[in-house]
From TrEMBL:
This is Uncharacterized protein. One of its GO terms (cellular component) is plasma membrane. The chain crosses the membrane at residues 12-34, 46-63, 84-103, 115-138, 150-171, 183-205, 239-263, 269-290, 323-342, 421-442. SUPFAM superfamilies: MFS general substrate transporter (SSF103473). Residues 472-500 are annotated as: Disordered. Keywords: Cell membrane, Membrane, Transmembrane, Transmembrane helix, Transport. It comes from Effrenium voratum. Belongs to the major facilitator superfamily. One of its GO terms (biological process) is sodium ion transport.
Amino acid sequence: MVQESERLSLRTKLLLALGQGVEGIWITVGGYYVNKFFLETCCLEPALVGLIQLGVGLFDAFNDTLIGALSDRTNTRWGRRRPWLLFGGPFLAASYVAVWNALPLQTPQELKMLYYTFAYMAVSIGLTSVRVQISALLPELTNDYNERTVASGFNVVGANVLGLTFAVLHSAIVGTENKPSSFLQSAAICASAILLFTWTVFCGIKERYVAPDEPLPSKGILTEIAWAMRNKSFCYVTLMYLAGPTAVTLTQTNIALFCKYVLRDESILMLLVPVVQGTGLFMIPVWVFIANKTSKKHIYLLGGSMLAASMVSLNFVESLEASLVIGVAVGMSLAVPYLVPISMLPDVVEEDEELTGRRREGVLSGLFTTALKLSVTAGSVLTNLILEQAGYVSPSSSCTASGKVVSTVEPDVQPPAVLQVMRWLVGPIPAMFILLAMFAAWRFPITPEVHAARMARRAASTAQIAKEKMDNVKSEPQEHGSAHNEAHEAHDEPCTKVVL
């Protein structure tokens, strides 16, 4: 059972935001640069990059849920969640460096694929060990509907601030030359920050979970998953967290190639990233304010409409000025696909507890995080398979030593079909995923009124249990006294008769 708490301290919110920022570093830096790194620095073929992402995505399908279930069962002097932060931090830092290590160009393509698959899987394990705990801690720390939205806003701000900071740092270090040594230098700095931030959260956060006096018997993971899948609210919020971030991932994954080949100026990305992420950061408090005045569902429908329209507009961009204007428009609603589902998940946890009688933050957070990772998988796999079919050409300027046969097309220029595909991958296709997420938001059944009614039932149930316990405590001495008096009267009765 969770201790009742209405408001979180600023310190706790900042610590949770710092933990979310660990994921933000990977999502932002990796989202904008890792696919291009694989294609044009590691010189992997697009189909192999797609296979790497597909393999990691399948691995994530059980990795996140398993770690979430294990964290629910963890019982140490540090708590349930904090041990995962203690040991997950250094593992994530080491695997982060491994992903950005460019193997020699002469390395066979198959060996490269194996190396980056296992390195990527290691990042997945480390990221899950941190991310699931941050998601699971929020519903344990507060039951207030609006407070959860505010705390989720802090989390998204943390992810955006740290993601933007390290993305800009990465851009400054790597530049447009894309030297392997520069990627390693950037990775070492980011990994050090990941380790520092994770251990700071471990040292600073305080868990409030109180284990029940008589814990319920544990169920198998498949049973836990089946219970979650029968919860319509959880299915809708998970679909939102899959479809919305998939749209963002598609745009992020392809924007570097879009700037280089469509706009013919790779340096535009160094301006576009701060514009998009900075605008998104500025708008987070605005979205939190609107959500507290209306509902989480309403801001998703509003923000999703804005984001879909902005993404479609990217298909028609031809200049730096136009790209920056649309970048601002995208940034205005960029946080919505992350902020709203994250703030909805704690409400789903309460509904799940009412339906199952169990507190399962870890399992639900694990499945929920799987959706985000699958969105990255879907975005990258779709990107690379389409680029391969369209005829993507590895750039001669960086891949001539890889042993591949380079096309006769002019170096660092792509065929018209690839350019058109890149336009669709940053605009119309992501917009379709946003529309799917908006449908899920429209169908999400937990409103502020529904949540308030559930909390009222919970408070009434808690009060009734407390009253019953108090009545039992009061009745025990009375029953004992009554029995004693009856025994005394029985003992005295013969004496009375003798006197008479």
